[in-house]
Amino acid sequence: MKEVYEFLKNAQTYYLATVEGDQPRVRPFGTVDLFEDKIYIQTGLVKEVAKQMNANPKVEISAMYEGRWIRVAAEVVPDERIEAQTHMLEAYPNLQAMYKPGDGNTVVYYLKDATATICSFTEPPKTITF
Length: 130
Known about the structure:
This protein has 130 residues and is an alpha+beta fold. It has a single domain, classed as Electron Transport, Fmn-binding Protein, Chain A (Pnp Oxidase, Chain A, Roll). It is 22% helix and 48% strand. The protein contains three helices and eight strands. Strands 1, 2, 3, 4, 5, 6, 7 and 8 form an eight-stranded antiparallel sheet that branches. The chain is globular, with a radius of gyration of 14 Å.
C-alpha cells in the first residue's frame, strides 16, 4: 500500500473516476495522504464528486509517473473524524484557505478493498491489494 501512496504522491496529479447514474465522470485530483495505514483522498461535500462517491463508493484512480502508470480500483469510505481531516490539510496547507477540519464541507475518504496495478511497457504488471 505504501508503494501505491508514494506513486500517487510522486505523480502529483491523478485522475479519479466516479459514476453518476450510468455516466462515468473523471477529474484531476491532487490530494493523497497516508493516515493510520490507509490511503486517503479529500474533497468538498458541496462538489458533485462527493455526491457521486456518496451515492456509489466504487472509484478508479489512474496516474502516470516516470514512464509507468497505475490503476487503482477501490471503494471509498468517508472518515468524519477531525483528526483525519486535520492530517490531510496539514499535508496540503494550500487548501487551508478553502477547507477547515469540521467545517461541514471538508470530507476525507479512505480507500478500501483496493487493487492497484502498476504497469509499463518494459516490465510486467505489478498488482498490489490492500
